[in-house]
Amino acid sequence: MTQKRLVVVLFGGRSSEHSISCATAGGVLKAIDRSLFDVVPVGITRDGAFVLEEDDPAKFALDPSNLPEVVDNGSRVRWPDSILSRELRVTLPDGAERSLGSPDIVFPILHGPFGEDGTLQGMLELVGYPYVGSGVLASALGMDKHFTKTVLEHAGITVAPWRTVTDAEYRARPAVAAEALEVLGSPVFVKPARAGSSVGVSRVTTVADLDAAMATAFAEDPKVLIEAGVPGRELEIAVLGGRPGEPARASVAGEIVLSGREFYDFDAKYLDAPGIDLVCPADLSDAELTKLQNVAIRAFDAIGAEGLARVDFFLPADGGIVVNEVNTMPGFTPISMFPTCWIRSGLSYENLITELLDVAAARRGA
Q1: Residues catalogued as catalytic
Q2: Residue 309 buriedness (CB in 10 A; 0-12 / 13-18 / 19+)
Q3: Strand ranges (DSSP E) for the chain?
Q4: Half-sphere exposure of 197 (CA within 13 A, CB side)
Q5: What backbone phi and psi angles, to 5 degrees, belong to 104?
Q6: Position 63 in a domain
Q7: What is the mean pLDDT of residues 153-177?
Q8: pLDDT confidence of residue 365
């Protein structure tokens, strides 16, 4: 009988995407193959405390009227103080301590800053735990839209034109935003450089709307992108990294069809707001799909991604391909586009989780 591996499912965090991370954890806790893996759920509160959470998927179900979160229960999970010890320990609210075992792998399903941006990956590297997903550099690149675009453009991959503006620059000279709108044309999307789930994003068509959009974006990040709108279809490809010596693999494409909203915003993604239809697989010719899959893998490799990513595209009417983002820890709820694309490609949600854990273990020598 194969010995079970111990997996830490790590979720929550300090970013504005805290609840989405919790919902993702609910899906993973429910679907992970318990015949292969034992699980230690570790939540990170909004204040950054690591707590031992309940192994209860229902607690973290995505409920638009009551979004899940990690609440401080008084416990404290203690990471090893050196790579010589693999033991994870917890201090309980009454002061008692106990061992949580020696994890074989960590599944850090956090979104946004302090989780998806390389900071948490750096911590796991320091304590010597193998983990699912990209390493420090690729995580940081994928989180920062400015540098993602810079790297992709250098790799010969087309991205939407943009102008990056810092908070200090904007306060010193507010006209910089209007100048960007004039150069890029209407509409533009104003978005935080380092946030996800469309948090802080606004669609802007006139100068009069710029101040409010910039304020919304700066509330999330002191660095903001003003990005040209790209007319055309909005498509997404899910990518799985390979084991050592194996290439990455790309899924079928999913399509976001606007049917009453200006763009695919947070409410449409997670709160069941109307006006968006998600179609998977997208209606593409074999040649179109192959071309998208090849560009998705090129983008994945360009930033040095590992494990998984969702590559988002615009497909203009002229037949070109424009990469919008490379998301190194995409939404992973059962209804999210990343697992949906793989399910439609023939890989079940449960087997997808197993594959991610197996690939991470193989790549990181676990």
Answers
A1: 17, 197, 270, 310, 312, 325, 327, 331
A2: buried
A3: 5-12, 37-44, 50-52, 76-78, 88-91, 97-101, 105-108, 162-166, 188-192, 202-204, 223-228, 233-240, 249-258, 276-279, 308-315, 322-327
A4: 26
A5: -85, -30
A6: yes
A7: 96
A8: 66
Nearest CA to 202 out of 276, 284, 261, 254 is that of: 261
Answer yes or no: is 36 within a domain.
yes
CATH of the domain at 359: 3.30.470.20
pTM: predicted TM-score of the whole model, two decimal places: 0.91
Asked, for residue 136, whether it belongs to a domain, the answer is no
By DSSP bridging, strand 202-204 and strand 249-258 are unpaired
Average of per-residue pLDDT across 68-80: 96
Estimate the crossing angle of helix 136-143 against helix 145-154, to 10 degrees: 100
The burial of 350, by beta-carbon neighbours within 10 Å (0-12 exposed, 13-18 middle, 19 or more buried), is given as middle
- Structure tokens given for 235: 């498509």
| 198 pLDDT more than 80 | no
- When pLDDT is cut at 50, 70 and 90, the band that residue 64 belongs to is confident
Q: Reply yes or no on whether the pLDDT at 196 is more than 70.
A: no
188, two tokens: 């533009």
Residue 303: which domain range? 141-158+231-363
pLDDT at residue 270 is higher than 80: no
Residues found in the chain: 366
Tokens 């974006």, residue located: 217
- Sequence-distant (≥ 6) Cβ neighbours of residue 293 within 8 angstroms: 237, 250, 251, 253
**Count of domains forming the chain:** 3
- What does the pLDDT look like over 212-237, one tens digit per residue? 999 999 998 999 999 999 999 999 99
Residue 113 DSSP symbol = T
Supply the pLDDT for residue 261: 47
**Encoding tokens for residue 303?**
């930033």
